[in-house]
Write a structure and sequence with these properties.
With 443 residues, the chain is an alpha/beta fold. The protein is 41% helix and 14% strand.
Length: 443
């Protein structure tokens, strides 16, 4: 043990593991300053390069952050503490509107497609050395990208949207680089960025997507990448409008070296047109997953981008998992070609459920947001009291802390399975929980 620092070890891996154990046990607390590398090396009796390698590993894992001469410290929110840990336990009998899941009744039956694809695989197994991308999946995806105004580029397949985002970030950035992220934004993205040793730079979001002024400030402050949700933004339901896309593209043209990552995970469940941002930066990636429309367990996303980005992503993928299962890719193709999902009908169903709740909340004087997707965002003065009161009244919603960095409090309501009969009582319960909190006098 090293004095006040519970750090030990002779090799870089041992030192890094020692710090991680101390963070996990609470002996090293978030924000605590670590000893300078040379000082730690002297105390441990090792070469300073060994400590430097250990600190580098810890940065890459998101355990510590380094601020030049101000030294290295434990991250305020270590990456090992995911935002999902803040989810609430839903007691029996409470209506769960916190999960973010699609309506199972709107998902297609997978059995026919899986059976057909399995039989095809039995006749002609996919072996090592085969093309990692199913040709028909690429053909259909490219046609849809073109129809939506996404520029032509190389193509690959990843294991869902977040897998694509992670691979693109690792392809271009180094630990410590800042990344512009939506605020509020998808909790897993807000966890992933620091877990990769990168720094989050919040960009405020309204109903039309990231605000141009916020993006400009983020890029001028040094952000090297931007992650944007095209439609069905989680948690607010925002969708990038045509006017907002033009404004954001103008900002990006001022910073052409920004790595642009666009996530269109809402494809297939929204009825708003896509307005892509690509065109103003040298490096870009556009990713479209099938999870929301066809089922979360279908871990597949189509990815296109500039040649350098896609080549790096594909090359690194070959060194790890190799490829996304061709059986899975063929299953998605069969679901597409069989018309297993009526996209317009699904989008209309989710729109109806959002509108029912938003209108009912408006009747009670409560502001709410939800242009697209399956979630409604309700600004509140105090998340804890509102979530607790709603739980007491039989409604479970997600606390906004899971999705926020610098924006004010709110709650996320997943309306994917909300019935017309429930919208009114839920709105009344939300209003009763919000209004008292707004009127509370602070001591």
């Amino acid at each position: 043990m090293l004095g006040e620092y519970p750090i030990e070890g002779r090799g870089a891996a041992e030192i890094a593991a020692s710090v991680e154990r101390a963070v996990g046990s609470g002996e090293l607390e978030p924000g605590q300053l670590l000893p300078p590398m040379r000082e730690l090396a002297t105390r441990l009796g090792v070469n300073p390069n060994t400590v430097a390698a250990a600190y580098r590993t810890l940065r890459e894992r998101g355990v510590i952050e380094t601020a030049g001469r101000r030294g290295s410290r434990i991250r305020p929110k270590p990456a090992t503490t995911g935002r999902d840990q803040s989810r609430i336990d839903v007691p029996a009998g409470v209506r769960d509107l916190s999960s973010g899941n699609p309506d199972p009744a709107l998902l297609p039956s997978l059995a026919p497609a899986l059976a057909a694809v399995a039989a095809e695989g039995d006749r002609a197994p996919v072996l090592y050395g085969a093309d990692p991308v199913e040709p028909e999946l690429e053909r259909i995806s490219r046609a849809e990208f073109t129809a939506d105004g996404v520029p032509e580029g190389p193509f690959t397949v990843t294991s869902g949207s977040l897998d694509a985002v992670e691979r693109v970030l690792l392809a271009h950035l180094k630990p410590g680089d800042p990344v512009a992220v939506e605020d509020p934004g998808w909790g897993r993205t807000l966890d992933l960025v620091p877990a990769l040793g990168l720094r989050t730079v919040p960009v405020a979001v309204d109903d039309e997507g990231p605000r141009p002024d916020g993006l400009r400030r983020a890029l001028e402050s040094g952000a090297r990448a931007l992650i944007v949700t095209a439609r069905a933004h989680n948690p607010t339901g925002a969708a990038v409008s045509a006017a907002r896309a033009r404004a954001l593209r103008a900002v990006l043209r001022e910073h052409p070296h920004t790595v642009l990552i666009e996530d269109d995970h809402g494809h297939g469940i929204v009825d708003l047109p896509l307005h892509p941002l690509v065109g103003g930066t040298h490096h870009w990636a556009f990713v479209r997953s099938v999870a929301k429309a066809y089922g979360p367990d279908l871990r597949l996303a189509a990815l296109t981008g500039d040649a350098t980005t896609v080549d790096r992503v594909s090359g690194r993928q070959r060194l790890g998992p190799g490829w996304v299962s061709r059986l899975l890719q063929r299953t998605v193709v069969r679901l597409w070609t069989d018309g297993a999902v009526d996209g317009p009908a699904v989008a209309a169903a989710y729109r109806s459920r959002r509108d029912l709740l938003i209108d009912a909340l408006a009747d009670h004087g409560v502001e709410a947001h939800g242009r697209s997707g399956m979630n409604v965002w309700v600004p509140v003065p105090d998340e804890t009291s509102v979530v607790s009161r709603l739980l007491h009244e039989g409604w479970a919603v997600a606390p906004g802390a899971r999705y926020r960095l610098a924006t004010p409090p709110g709650i996320r309501v997943t309306v994917s399975t909300l019935t017309p009969e429930e919208a009114g009582p839920l709105a009344a319960a939300v209003a009763a929980a919000v209004v008292p909190a707004r009127g509370r006098v602070q001591a």
